[in-house]
């Protein structure tokens, strides 16, 4: 296609009704060149290595210099190969909280061609077993507190990151050429992350080395911001990518390792370590605003903060306004992406783009997008809302072992259906409108109604169940259940909530239960969730 057909101001091509990124190209190697993500990332590091730390623990202040980081990665890679017999294509399940050893582990595994598969350490044992059944790992890494949750076959031989054995792996003789023992292709799987896709239960998203290469090159406008504090989970694609990116950019990564998010503590760490960029989820941004409104001193202590990076869910205009009042010299940069797109493929870069309230920025380099009518698949004109489809080198390889789900979201031409309703204006700026997905976004996490409905229906007193989200100022949305009891059952709300809470991670817990005679469905038997959502709002409002 001729570049003359692409509008230089917004990237729109009227002939194809497709948007193209206008960002500067990134230095990706030829796709056919054998290369792993670690080798690619480390090729960007300057010589001599930077004097500032590569990693910092916000809770303890412990620092890992760049030289030590590289030495640990090489030593661990050698140990993985020699002691644990980990090799190209092996899946490594990781069940651990944030810590300085985790980025080292991620890089070392990928350096030997293994596939990193991190999961939420707060999940229950049955939930973890279901994820492991999807990815079929041959080795597991955990900590003392999480190892017991692993399936029996994995827990017996799990390597504990807080054990003397693992520490000895980091101190062993490193070999800079260990990653060259196997030829690693850019199309090889590098990570398996877990997502609910557009609907339904968890799926294993396969991301390649090239997917990660595309997503890890930091935007040029962020090059001067050299201290990133990460407060989001590093098993989630948002945190996973940001866990890897700072090292590649020769920046310092400050890891928030505390079990709970405390806005005052985080802002204190910003001042203590000179943090310039802070990566958070929307509930954390709200907590920061509330802390600042209660105590002006926390704002003064965070004077180095230039930008807050926020993803996982939309931010309200009111929250952005309140933040700007307290932090007038800090911009909030929103982005948009999915696990299936290796995190964000659209982001606001710089102060000017971040001022576009309600937008999530412009397409990243290599991205193509179109807005289509969800019913017909016909591409729409600029400014008209429809379902966002995207294509680019960051799009996943597919769902592991699930061709049907892969083909439902990814077509033969490489277009990924996001399931989100968006619009793109004439300047190429993307705005979120609504979503087709039935997923509930609770504290930045995805909660699949189908999973909770299946669980509820295992209760001996429940015939049918439907789960929807209802708005909450702090969490974004909270799961709510409509339940049809079986004849003769003696159900009550507390009992049902407790039944679910014992079997799921905290953000999947049911917060309200309505006992009903029937659940509205269409002619095909599909639950009418919008009707239920409206009913929920009415019921809750009437009780206030």
TrEMBL record:
Residues 451-526 form the AMP-binding enzyme C-terminal domain. Keywords: ATP-binding, Ligase, Magnesium, Nucleotide-binding. GO terms for biological process: phenylpropanoid metabolic process. It catalyses: (E)-4-coumaroyl-AMP + CoA = (E)-4-coumaroyl-CoA + AMP + H(+); (E)-4-coumarate + ATP + H(+) = (E)-4-coumaroyl-AMP + diphosphate; (E)-4-coumarate + ATP + CoA = (E)-4-coumaroyl-CoA + AMP + diphosphate. It comes from the Eukaryota. Its EC number is 6.2.1.12. One of its GO terms (molecular function) is trans-cinnamate-CoA ligase activity. Its cofactor is Mg(2+). Residues 50-400 form the AMP-dependent synthetase/ligase domain. Belongs to the ATP-dependent AMP-binding enzyme family. This is 4-coumarate--CoA ligase.
């Amino acid at each position: 296609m001729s570049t003359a057909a692409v509008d230089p101001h917004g990237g729109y091509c009227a002939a194809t009704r497709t948007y193209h990124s206008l960002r500067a190209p990134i230095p990706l190697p030829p796709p056919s060149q054998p290369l792993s993500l670690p080798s690619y990332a480390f090729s960007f590091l300057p010589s001599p290595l930077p004097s500032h730390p590569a990693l910092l623990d916000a809770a303890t202040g412990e620092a890992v210099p760049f030289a030590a980081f590289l030495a640990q990665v090489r030593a661990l890679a050698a140990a993985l190969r020699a002691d644990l017999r980990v090799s190209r294509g092996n899946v490594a399940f990781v069940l651990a909280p944030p810590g300085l050893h985790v980025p080292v582990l991620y890089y070392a595994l990928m350096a030997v061609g293994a596939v990193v598969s991190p999961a939420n350490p707060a999940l229950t044992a049955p939930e973890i077993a279901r994820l492991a059944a999807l990815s079929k790992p041959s080795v597991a890494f955990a900590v003392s507190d999480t190892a017991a949750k692993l399936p029996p076959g994995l827990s017996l031989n799990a390597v504990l990151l807080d054990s003397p054995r693992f520490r000895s792996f980091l101190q062993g003789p490193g070999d800079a050429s260990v990653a060259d023992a196997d030829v690693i292709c850019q199309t090889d799987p590098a990570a398996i992350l877990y997502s609910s896709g557009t609907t339904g239960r968890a799926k294993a998203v396969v991301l390649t080395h090239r997917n990660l290469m595309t997503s890890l090159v930091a935007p040029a406008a962020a090059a001067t911001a050299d201290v990133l504090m990460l407060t989001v989970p590093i098993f989630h694609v948002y945190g996973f990518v940001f866990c890897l990116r700072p090292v590649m950019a020769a920046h310092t990564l400050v890891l928030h390792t505390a079990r709970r998010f405390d806005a005052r503590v985080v802002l204190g760490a910003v001042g203590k370590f000179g943090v310039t960029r802070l990566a958070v989820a929307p509930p954390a941004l709200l907590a920061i605003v509330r802390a600042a409104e209660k105590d002006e001193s926390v704002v003064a202590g965070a004077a180095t903060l230039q930008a807050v990076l926020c993803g996982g869910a939309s931010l309200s205009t009111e929250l952005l306004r309140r933040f700007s009042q307290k932090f007038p010299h800090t911009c909030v940069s929103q982005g948009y992406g999915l696990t299936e797109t290796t995190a964000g493929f659209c982001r606001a870069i710089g102060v000017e783009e971040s001022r576009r309230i309600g937008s999530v920025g412009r397409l990243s380099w290599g991205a193509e997008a179109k807005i289509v009518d969800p019913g017909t698949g016909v591409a729409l004109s600029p400014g008209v809302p429809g379902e966002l489809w995207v294509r680019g080198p960051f799009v996943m390889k597919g769902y592991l072992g699930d061709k049907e789900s892969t083909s439902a979201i990814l077509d033969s031409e490489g277009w990924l259906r996001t399931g989100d309703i968006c619009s793109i204006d004439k300047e190429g700026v993307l705005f979120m409108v609504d979503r087709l997905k039935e997923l509930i976004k609770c504290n930045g996490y995805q909660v699949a109604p189908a999973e909770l409905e299946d669980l509820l229906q295992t209760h001996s007193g429940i015939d049918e169940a439907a789960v929807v989200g209802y708005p909450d100022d702090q969490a974004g949305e909270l799961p709510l259940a409509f339940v049809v009891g079986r004849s003769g059952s003696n159900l009550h709300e507390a009992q049902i909530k407790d039944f679910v809470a014992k079997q799921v991670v905290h953000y999947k817990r049911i917060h309200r239960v309505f006992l009903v005679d029937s659940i509205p469905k269409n002619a095909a038997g599909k639950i009418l969730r919008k009707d239920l959502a409206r009913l929920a709002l009415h019921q809750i409002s009437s009780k206030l």
